[in-house]
Design brief:
It is built from 18 helices and 24 strands. Helix 4 crosses helix 5 and helix 8 packs across helix 13. It is α/β, with parallel strands linked by helices. It has three domains: about 240 residues, Aminohydrolase, N-terminal nucleophile (Ntn) domain (Glutamine Phosphoribosylpyrophosphate, subunit 1, domain 1, 4-Layer Sandwich); about 170 residues, Glucose-6-phosphate isomerase like protein, domain 1 (Rossmann fold, 3-Layer(aba) Sandwich); about 150 residues, Rossmann fold, CATH 3.40.50. The structure holds 2-deoxy-2-amino glucitol-6-phosphate.
C-alpha cells in the first residue's frame, strides 16, 4: 500500500528519491517523506499531502547526501498527520526507517522498548521498527546482527528500508515486495521497479525472509538465519518504463484510451501458458474464480462467459470472503485468481487457502514478478503495461479479453468474439466523447446513480458503479435490471439518474421495460446502447457488433463518463481519496 525506496550512490539521493516516489505514488499518497545521511547525521523532512505538494512546502529534494530513503503513505495505523508520515527516526535519531505493511505485535514491542527507555512520537505501528533496530544496534554494535534480531522480533507483513548513521542502508522483506536495482551510479531498493526504472533495468528480486545490507563496498544479501544468499540479476521489461502521461491530462484517460490496443495484446506474451491453462480448465473437476474489486467484477463476467459459450460451471468468490467460506476447495479443484497487481493481500490469502487443499492455481495478472505469480502453477500475463491510475480500466478489459480467449478456445472458436472488431468499436467510442462530456456535466452534482444491466451486463453495471464511486465520489450502485421492482424502485425520483446498459441482445427488451418503469417515477435515464429509444433522456451510442463482444465495449463510455465527471468536480482521477492501487493489507 505504501511505497518505499532507498538509494546509495554517487549522486544526490533526495532528488532521485522524490522522482521515484512520484512514480510510485499510486501505492499510497496521503503523506510523504525523505531521510538522507549527510555529514554523519540523518536528516528527515516529511508532511501530509501528495509528493508534489509536500516537496513544494518543505523541499524534500533539497536534502543533501548521497544516501537516503523515502516513503509515500497509505495510513493504516494512526491518522494522516505530519508526525505519522514516514521516515520514522529511532528515539536517538541514529537510524531512520520507511515501512510498507503491518506490524501486528507493535503494541507489545512498543511497551517493551519504552520500558528500556526508547521514546515514541507517532501513532504508527512502523516506528517500532526504528526503535527495535536501535535497541539491537545498541546491544550488538553490528548492523547485520541488529537486522536479524529485529526481523525475528517482528510479527506481521513488512518490507522496510533503514538508513544507519554510518551511511549504510539495510532492508528486509517479509510478505511485501522489495526489489534491488543495480545502477551504474548507485544502488536502489524499492517496493516497485517503477521507483528506479529510469536509472537501471538490472534488478534482483529479494525473496521472502531475506534482508540486504548496502554500503559503498557493495551489497550483501542474507536469509533471516544470516545465511548468505546469491541471486541472479535479471532485466526488467522495457514496458515498465512507459509511465509518462504524454499528451494526456491524466494517467486514467491515457489508460482508458489504450484499450483498443491492450485488448488485442492481452495474453500474447504468455500464449503457451494460455493453452496450458485452458486445458486444465477444460478438465477441471470443480472450477472457482476469485479477485477483489474490479478483478472480482471480471470474475463475474467469467461466470456468464464460461456457462454460455464453454458450457463450463465456474463459481466466483470474492477473495476476502474465501477465508469465511468453509471447505469450498477440493483436491482437484482449479482456482483462477485475477489480479492486476498480483499483490492484493485478500487475493493472496484466498490462493494460500486454496493451495492447502491441493487446488491448482491459474493466475491472470499484470505484474509478472508479483507474489501471486510465485504462488501459481500457471500465470497468464495481461500484458497491458503499467496501470498507474488507481481506478482499474485497461486491466479490466485485458482480464476480460483473456477470459474470452479461454472460453473461445474451449468452444473451438464459436463465441463470435472478434477482437479486431471489438477494438474498432472501442476506437469509435473514444473518437467522439463530446456527448459523454456533456452528460458528465449533468451528473457532477447528483447524489445517487444506479446502473442496471441484465445477464452478462450485470457485472459490467457493477464495474461501472465502482468506477463512478472511485472517480466521482458519487454514490453509485450496480443492479441486475430485474431486481429493480423488488426494492430499489422505491429510491427513484426526479433527482435520480439511472444508466441502463442495453445493447441489442436477448436482454434488450426486458432492460427497456425496466427503463420505462424508472422513467414513470420521474428519474433520468441514460441509455448505453447501439439503438436509440424515446425512453432515454440521454443516449450514449455504442457501435452495433456481435452480441458476444458488448461486455468488452460497453464499459468504455462509462469509464469515460466517470473520468469526465471527476474532472468536472475537480477531483484527482488518478489518485482518488482514501484509496491505493495495490491493497497489500487485509
Ligand atoms: C479498481 O478500480 C480498484 N482500484 C480496486 O477495486 C482493485 O481492482 C482491487 O483492489 C484489486 O486489485 P488487484 O486487481 O490489483 O488485485
Amino acid at each position: 500500500m505504501c511505497s518505499i525506496i532507498g538509494y546509495l550512490g554517487l549522486n544526490q539521493a533526495a532528488p532521485i528519491i522524490v522522482k521515484g516516489l512520484k512514480r510510485m505514488e499510486y501505492r499510497g499518497y496521503d503523506s510523504v517523506g525523505v531521510a538522507t545521511f549527510s555529514n554523519n547525521h540523518i536528516l528527515v523532512r516529511k508532511g501530509v499531502g501528495k509528493v508534489i505538494e509536500v516537496n513544494k512546502a518543505v523541499r524534500l529534494d533539497e536534502l543533501s547526501g548521497t544516501v537516503g530513503i523515502g516513503h509515500t503513505r497509505w495510513a493504516t495505523h494512526g491518522m494522516v498527520t505530519d508526525t505519522n508520515a514516514h521516515p520514522h527516526p529511532s528515539s536517538t535519531g541514529e537510524i531512520a526507517i520507511v515501512h510498507n505493511g503491518i506490524i501486528e505485535n507493535h503494541e507489545e514491542l512498543k511497551r517493551e522498548l519504552e520500558q528500556k527507555g526508547y521514546a515514541f512520537k507517532s501513532q504508527t505501528d512502523s516506528e517500532v521498527i526504528a526503535n527495535l533496530l536501535q535497541y539491537h544496534h545498541d546491544e550488538t554494535g553490528d548492523i547485520k546482527q541488529s537486522m536479524t534480531h529485529t526481523v525475528s522480533d517482528l510479527k506481521g507483513s513488512y518490507a522496510f528500508v533503514a538508513v544507519f548513521e554510518d551511511g549504510t542502508l539495510a532492508a528486509a522483506r517479509f510478505h511485501e515486495p522489495l526489489i534491488i536495482g543495480i545502477g551504474k551510479e548507485g544502488y536502489f531498493i524499492s517496493s516497485d521497479v517503477l521507483g528506479f526504472v529510469e536509472h537501471t533495468d538490472e534488478v534482483i528480486y529479494l525473496d521472502n525472509r531475506e534482508f540486504v545490507i548496502i554500503n559503498t563496498t557493495g551489497i550483501q544479501i542474507f536469509d533471516f538465519n544470516i545465511n548468505p544468499v546469491r541471486h541472479q540479476i535479471t532485466k526488467v521489461s522495457k514496458e515498465f518504463a512507459d509511465v509518462y502521461k504524454g499528451e494526456y491530462a491524466h494517467f486514467t484517460l491515457k489508460e482508458i484510451s489504450e484499450q483498443p490496443t491492450t485488448i488485442l495484446n492481452a495474453g500474447n506474451n504468455t500464449k503457451l501458458e494460455l493453452d496450458l491453462a485452458t486445458d486444465l480448465i477444460r478438465h477441471a473437476k470443480t472450477l472457482y474464480i476469485t479477485g477483489s474489486g474490479t478483478s472480482y467484477n471480471a470474475a463475474l463476467v467469467a461466470k456468464f462467459l464460461f456457462s454460455k459459450y464453454a458450457k463450463i460451471k465456474i463459481e466466483p468468490i470474492i477473495s476476502s470472503e474465501v477465508h469465511f467460506s468453509h471447505d469450498v476447495f477440493e483436491q482437484q479443484s482449479i482456482l483462477i485468481a485475477l489480479s492486476q497487481s498480483g499483490e492484493s493481500a485478500d487475493v493472496l490469502e484466498a490462493v494460500n487457502i486454496a493451495k492447502k487443499t491441493g487446488t491448482k492455481i491459474i493466475s491472470i495478472v499484470n505484474i509478472m514478478t508479483s507474489s501471486l505469480v510465485h504462488l501459481s502453477s500457471i500465470s497468464i500475463g495481461l500484458g497491458c503495461g503499467p496501470e498507474i491510475g488507481v481506478a482499474a480500466t485497461k486491466s479490466f478489459t485485458a482480464q476480460l479479453a483473456i477470459l474470452y480467449k479461454i472460453a473461445d478456445k474451449i468452444c473451438n472458436g464459436s463465441t463470435g468474439i472478434d477482437f479486431a472488431k471489438a477494438s474498432e468499436a472501442i476506437k469509435k467510442i473514444l473518437s467522439d466523447d463530446s456527448k459523454i462530456k456533456e452528460i458528465a456535466k449533468k451528473i457532477r452534482d447528483v447524489s445517487d446513480i444506479y446502473i442496471l444491466g441484465r445477464g452478462i451486463h450485470y457485472p459490467i453495471a457493477s464495474e461501472a458503479s465502482l468506477k463512478l464511486k472511485e472517480l466521482t465520489y458519487i454514490h453509485a450502485e450496480g443492479l441486475p435490471g430485474g431486481e429493480l421492482k423488488h426494492g430499489p424502485l422505491a429510491l427513484m425520483d426526479s433527482n435520480t439518474y439511472v444508466i441502463m446498459i442495453n445493447p441489442s441482445d436477448p436482454t434488450y427488451s426486458d432492460t427497456l421495460t425496466s427503463a420505462r418503469e424508472i422513467k414513470a417515477r420521474g428519474a433520468k435515464v441514460i441509455g448505453v446502447s447501439d439503438k436509440p429509444s424515446d425512453v432515454y433522456d440521454y443516449w450514449i451510442e455504442i457501435p452495433q457488433i456481435d452480441e458476444s463482444m458488448y461486455p468488452l465495449v460497453e464499459i468504455i463510455p462509462i469509464q469515460l463518463l466517470a473520468y469526465y465527471a471527476a474532472v468536472e468536480k475537480d477531483t484527482d482521477p488518478d489518485y482518488p481519496r482514501n484509496l491505493a492501487k495495490s491493497v497489500t493489507v487485509k
